[in-house]
Amino acid sequence: MTENELSKIIVDISYKIHTRLGPGLLESVYEAILHHELTKKGLTVERQKPIPVIWEDIHLDIGFRSDLIVENKVIIEIKSVEKISNIHLKQLLTYIRVTNLKLGLLINFNEALIKNGIKRVVHGLS
Questions:
Q1: pLDDT tens digit sequence for 1-46
Q2: Which of 23, 29, 60, 115 has a CA 20 to 30 Å removed from the CA of 106?
Q3: Burial 59-70 (b: 16+ CB within 10 A, else e)
Q4: What three-state secondary structure class fits 101?
Q5: Is 120 exposed, middle or buried (0-12, 13-18, 19+ CB in 10 A)?
Q6: For 14, which DSSP code?
Q7: Which strand ranges, in their side-by-side order, compose the sheet holding 103-108?
Q8: How far is CA 70 from the centre of its chain?
Q9: Nearest Cα to Cα of residue 94 among 57, 58, 50, 64
Q10: pTM to 2 decimals?
Q11: Domain ranges of the chain
């Protein structure tokens, strides 16, 4: 499955979750449910996976933890904030670069319409 095919599945499930629960819950709630729903679809999903940062010959295990990584192709950063800011998008782009993935989805469940809360961040995807 391609990154774009996975992205469609992730967006569809996010829409389903948001329609049923609405905005206002903790990020961890949306993360757990999204993880459950993606796994139910038969996808491999890693949750809160530690991602090291490698600098020259130094391996730093204190890089970050990804919210979700789907099929080792798409990284998902989940938010439940009033508004997505540029720093959130830059953060996700950094995560994509560090993991050598090509696609990230920033999903803010705290929007009245979920379509306004989903941002794609691409690096090296054709």
A1: 999 999 999 999 999 999 999 999 999 999 999 999 999 999 999 9
A2: 60
A3: eeeebbebbbbb
A4: coil
A5: middle
A6: H
A7: 45-55, 58-70, 74-79, 103-108, 118-122
A8: 9
A9: 64
A10: 0.92
A11: 3-122
